[in-house]
Amino acid sequence: MPFFSIVSYLMGYVVILVKGKSPEKFINLAFNEGIVLWDITSISKDKLLLKVRLSAVRTLRQVARKTNCRFWIQKRTGAPFLYSRIKRRKSMALGIVIFVLGLYFLSSFIWLIEITGNHYYSSSEVLGVAAEAGLKRGILKNQLKPRKIERVIQNRLPEVAWVGISVKGTKVSVEIVEKDRVKKEKNNIHAHVIAKKTGIIKEILVINGQVNVQEEDTVVPGQILISGIVLPVKKPEEILEKEQTAEEAEKPLYVHAKGVVRARVWYNGYGEAYLKEKGQRYTGRTATRISLVIGFKELKIFNPSSIPFAEYKKEVTKKKLPSWRSFKPPVELIKQKYYELENYECILSREEARQKARQKAWAKAKKQVPEQAVIIRQETKEIAGNKEELVRIRMLVETKEDIGTEKTF
Amino acid sequence: MNRQDMAKHLKQKVSEVLELPGDVVLNLPKVTLIGGVKVFIENHRGIIEYTTLRVRIYTTAGELTVYGDKLKIRSIIPDEICIEGEIKGLLLNKDGQEYAFF
What we know:
CATH class of chain B: Mainly Beta
Number of strands of chain B: 7
Low-confidence stretches of chain A: none
CATH topology of the largest domain in chain A: Alpha-Beta Plaits
Mean pLDDT of chain B: 86
Distance between the termini of chain A: 87 Å
Helix content of chain B: 10-25%
Helix content of chain A: 25-40%
Largest sheet of chain A: 5 strands, antiparallel
CATH superfamily of the largest domain in chain A: ACT domain
CATH topology of chain B: Immunoglobulin-like
Number of strands of chain A: 22
Shape of chain B: elongated
Oligomer: heterodimer
Structural class of chain A: alpha+beta
Largest interface: A-B, 17 and 15 residues
Number of domains of chain B: 1
Shape of chain A: elongated
């Protein structure tokens, strides 16, 4: 009866030793008087231990007198006794109260402000605006108006697309999403457009700079396609006329070369497939073993006595309690999961194997092709091998793509 | 048959006809035994003897004795006694006749 024991604790109860010729009479009279007794244990023929509420002790004295018994209080338990003990140590009780109140009081302030998601604005900039809006370290939590602060930040910092303020305990998280901005061109740098791949040039579009290559040219990686050094165009008559300023005219112009250079690029992919395929695959059946490691001892909590699979793959996950400073809790939960494997063998026809090899080759080639590239042609070629049971496929993928990349000089 | 017996007889009849439980109408003890570890006795009239090996309780149906080991009276109130321990037997002594039922 938890209710009964809680009430007993709050009211206080005592363990008493009853001694008398017939303690049974003491019990009978006591409960007839309406006194609740519990946990009665007999020690010997004339001695009993029992528990009784503090409020009933006075009545119990009369009962004892009537039944020729005597009793002694052995142990005092409960809130009233605790209270009197606390009264003796007032300063400690005061300390506890101050601590609890202090904790409560301090937890009603904001102590930490965390800003995430800002790249363009510095954290101190955002903090400054937030402070003006009323979000400062040390303000009361109930004085915080997140919606208003969000609005102010959004108005004051134009590059901010969205602000979210959330309060977690004494910490305020300001989450910022900035607008996607077009990167400002830095025109003062000089750069070439160089090739990053080998290919045959199909189209050239120059925005700035001087073309170095022509259509149908084969280029190798690193080759300058559009030069950032623009040499002055020489006209024969100009040379004659302005000989004195020839030096000046010879001076090349350095620019930030820009342009699109599309070229045909080839990619290779290779795949093979056996006519007779052998391997291992999962059956889908698993077994789990869980053990708890305390210090150096391993306790098996849940484990199949032996792994019921002939062939399997093991996966081990360890879970640890978070460590605190240099203290690492010596408790670890280890979960081992076994996946059953089975051997399989399948026989493919030549055409099926070819299909499979082609798929592999295609996947390999496709992996190298960048996203922006346009595939214009693909070609498969079977490589004749001496091994009869192997089909080998080479795949050639031709794309048209922009191969230019900027390189400063 | 005196008056008291007649009244008792009548009560018994009433409880039979109306299918009322005997412990309510006739103040008979209701003994609930929980797996040899705990026994509740309702409608008791007091303890006659209490040791760790034997508890004798006075009831309207006679004297009820609980045998066992490490017996302990968990609680006692006017309506109910709860005894805990290794209960080995229950014996009802009614007018000199003994009925063992556990």
